[in-house]
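User: My collaborator sent over this chain with a note saying "see what the structure looks like." That's all I know about it. Can you take a look?
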Amino acid sequence: MEKMKANSVLLKPAQCALDLGVGSERALYVNQDYILRKLGKVHRGISLMYTYYPKEKEWPTRASLIPTDKKATGAWDYPYEDYFPYLGGVLGRTDDEPFNFMKEIRQHGQDVVLTLTIDPTLTEEDLIPIAKDLLPYGRILLRVNHECTGSWFCYTKRASYQQIADFYVLVCKVMHEHAPNVKMILCAGMYENATGKIEMEDIFLEAFKVTDYWSFDQYLALHWGWPFDVAKKGGNSFACYDVDEVYERSRKTVERLKLLTGMDKPVLMSELNADGDVTGPYEQSNMMRHFMELLEKEENPWLSGFTLYQFRDDGRLGLEITDPNNKDVGIEQPILGMYKKQLHKPFFSQPIESGSEVSFPCKLRWGSSEDSEGVEVSIKVEKNPHFAELYFDEELIDANLMFEFGGYWFYKAPGVKCIDLMSYFFENPLEDDCSKEFKLRIFAPPATGKNSTDSKDSLFNYYYDLPKLPKIRIEYEPVSITKKY
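Assistant: Without extra context I'll predict from the sequence alone. Here is the result:
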């Protein structure tokens, strides 16, 4: 395979990007190798949710673990939000959460989408350490104090809505100045039919103007009383919405934002799902499928991407639900199979554009999951194989690589000598005597998960010199067999 013709390739943005929530107040983080094997494909980004209240005397204890005589009756009935504490900033623990997860996400060819709820009384000097924390992580999307027109989060009890809006503008200023690789997401209110306006649009107008992304959260069904009660008919701790109406309201929100600001920014839905506590597992899948099909059929696209909340959930808001006996185990729900099919559709996939022929060694550039340069080779597979493997000798053993093959993605960590591609053929077997030509695409995300910060270019791009191609082994028969059974 080393003498095969290779061409350059460019990884580009999907028509509608898909991000995936992995861990929150409702669940633990799930490693990226497990998720990749379950779904067979990378996401544009992986969403993490943390909180930062460094001036609280209990900090950094997780809010729900603070000793108190008061019994919580709601998800945010604590001194600060019950996400896991962000241990960077003034604590300086950048080898701890969430940075260990951020490194793994980037090693696997995805961007970090970080949500932080932050004490809105912090100053510019308090925020600069966070900006410095985020410098080595390439393009990172940062969502601060989301759902900011609501009243449920703890930070809304500490400041007026105008103060919250002004604080967001301050965070944008700090990040744009001290961490230009960070792109800010403002997750605010939505269009209201009664007024023809976005909720609190006047208060958040400047925030809408200075942010990089507009965003809003909208569930198709949600049991907000979880885990303190059980959703039952006649209850008042949950809601279920008409999917078509949610879609139309979301579209009107975007139209209003453009009119209000005179700008056109990329739009995200930063949390989207239907809650199986309300709909049950089958309609949960059907509702999300319908919403995604509406996006695909849209003649005038308005959404640049959304985050599926989430991969594994302690309740029923996940592709898997957490096994109550063992939090390291997930129980697959019907929505997972549906979502996997959607994830692999061209509409939700990053296209890969072929370029000119290259020679080795070849410099690969990793910019982001929507802008990276790799190489490709053509592989002809004569019929359904029994073995399809990539081998890495001493020149490639330390490489950190991602492979795209037939729309499926595979990861090679440093030190790994062999990658098995057969999982593609298990799900997509070739017919007998039906050959097919495949493109094997190779990308090189940062081996440590971090970029250098030596220059402006290195903040955005990581480079790797690929010395050669791996060796590929394709076999069409068993190595040894006495007879067919």
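A starting point for your reply to your collaborator: The longest strand covers residues 371-381.
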